[in-house]
Specification:
With about 260 residues, this protein is α+β, with helices and mostly antiparallel strands. Helices cover about 35% and strands about 25% of the residues. β7 (about 125-130) and β8 form a beta hairpin.
């Protein structure tokens, strides 16, 4: 298997689907939006983009199965799995806020082996494959080597359906708002992770994520020299619905705050 060749082919596919999404954004009508569950929005754009991605990926790597957000393919138990979010940041897209992305991860026995995140409006393609560096539009990227929480800019996502943990989030934000340069809520976890990988954000944490939200970005962070964990310090951040991502230098300080509020 030539991972580099496959990654480049997937990048070309993702950019083609990104053009479709960008074009649809110009005339999108909010009346066609569906609600899968409370605050879980979807439209024909998500569904069509996913169908295009699945069809293309089947041609590129026929042996792999799929985990897809919009269930174009029933999830399969295979050695290799593509994990797809065809439009991460659907709410932003619907409201014409230009922060949304395509995220694709490739897992082997549930271990990340490749990641692609395409921020559509800025035409920024982040990617990495097994044993490669991490790249943004062909240029090598690295996490920021800042070891001081007080000097950091962080990203997170707010609860929008699981409000049982709202108080824990508020307590965490209270500490981090006072102890950092600021917090940002972009609305796309895939973009947040890509921005950690290239050093725009020093760190990112979020609760309540699905595998397709993070599968692409986590591998890019890893290959860019970053560190990942769940809220308990373990490695269940693909399917465990919680993640902390940062440089190794900053990780303990950010982890200590999150762990103190969510786990103690």
């Amino acid at each position: 298997m030539n991972s580099g060749k496959i990654c480049i082919e997937v990048c070309e596919l993702v950019k083609q689907v990104g053009i479709f999404i960008r074009n649809e954004s110009k005339t999108f009508d909010q009346s066609v939006v569906e609600e899968k569950s409370f605050n879980q929005l979807v439209s024909y754009v998500d569904k069509t983009a996913e169908e295009k991605l699945v069809a293309g990926l089947k041609k590129i790597f026929p042996d792999a199965g799929f985990i897809t957000e919009e269930q174009t393919v029933v999830s399969e138990e295979k050695e290799w799995l593509w994990v797809i979010d065809p439009l991460d940041g659907t709410t932003n897209f619907i409201h014409q806020i230009p922060v949304y992305s395509i995220s694709i991860g490739l897992l082997k026995n549930k271990k990340p082996m490749m990641g692609i995140v395409y921020e559509i409006n800025r035409d920024e393609l982040f990617y990495a494959w097994e044993n490669s560096k991490a790249y943004l539009n062909g240029k090598e990227i690295h996490v920021k080597q800042n070891a001081e929480l007080s000097m950091s800019l962080l990203a997170t996502g707010f609860p929008y359906y699981d409000f049982d943990i709202m108080q824990k989030y508020l307590e965490t934000l209270h500490v981090l708002m006072k102890g950092t340069r600021g917090m940002r809520r972009m609305g796309s976890a895939a973009v947040d992770l890509a921005y950690v990988a290239c050093g725009r954000f020093d760190g990112f944490f979020e609760f309540g994520l699905s595998s397709w939200d993070v599968a692409g970005g986590i591998f890019i962070v890893q290959q860019a020299g970053g560190k990942l964990s769940d809220f308990s310090g373990g490695d269940d951040y693909i399917f465990g619905r919680e993640i902390i991502a940062s440089s190794a230098a900053l990780h303990k300080q950010l982890f200590d705050v999150v762990y103190d509020k969510f786990r103690k």
